[in-house]
Amino acid sequence: MRGNGLRIYSLIYLLFLYAPIALLPVFAFNSGTIIAFPLKGFTTDWFAQMWANPTLRRAFFNSLTIAVSSAVLATALGVFAARASTRYNFPAKTGIMGLIMLPLVLPEIIVAMSLLVVLLAIGVELSVLTVIVGHTLICLPYAIAILTTAFNSLDKSLEEAAQDLGETRFSAFRLVILPLVMPGIISALLMSFTISLDEFIIAFFLAGNEPTLPTYIFSQLRFPKAIPVIMALGTVLVLMSILLLTAAEYFRRRGAARTGRQGHGGFL
To answer: Which CDD domains has this protein been placed in (predicted)?
Structure first.
C-alpha cells in the first residue's frame, strides 16, 4: 500500500511539473490565437513569424553571444578553481572556495542588484558585456561543482607517473590530466550555456537596451496576439535545453567511466 501511494505521488508530481512544458508544442502548432481548448487546427505559421521578427532575432543572437561567452569564461575559471581545490592546500582554502560558490545559494535578484549598483558606480554602461559578467558569476559555481567531481575522480598517480617519465607539470597536465577531464569540461560548458541561455533576472537588470530571449519573452506577454509566437519560441528553447542537458549528462557519465577505467588500469 505504501509503495502504491509513493507511485501515485510521484505520478502527480511529474504531471504537475511537466504538463505545462508538454502543452507548449500543443499550442505552438495550434492555429488559434487564444491559448485554450478545444484546438482549432494545425499550423506552422507561428514558427515562421518567430523567425521573421527582427527584434526576436536580435534577442536570440544576443542570448547566444552571452551564453557562449559566459560558458567559456565560467568553464575556464572553473578548471583553475577545481584544479586548485582538489590538488593543492593553501591558506583559507575552505573560505575562498565558499566565497566562490556563494552565488549558488544567494537569490539572483540580490546578485543582480549588487552588480547593477557596482557597475553604475564605476561608470560602466549596461550592455551585452555586463550581462556576460553577471552570467559568468552565476554559472561559475555550477562549472566548479562539475569539474571538482571530474578532478576528484582522477588517480593522482597518473600525473606523478608522467612527471617521473620526464614531463613537466604543465605538460603532464596538458597531455594526461586535461584529456581525462575533457568530458567534465564539455559537460560544464553545456550546463553553463543552458543556465545562461535561460537566465532572466541578471539579464533584466544588466542588459540595458539590449534584448535577450528571456527579457523579450517577458515583454511580449502583455500582448495576447504575441502569445502563440512565444509558445513557438518556448518550444524551440525547451528542445534546445533538453538536447544540451542530455549531452552534458552523457559527457559527465563518459568522463566518470573513463577516469574509473584509467584509475584501475594504471598510467599505461
So the answer is: TM_PBP2 (cd06261)
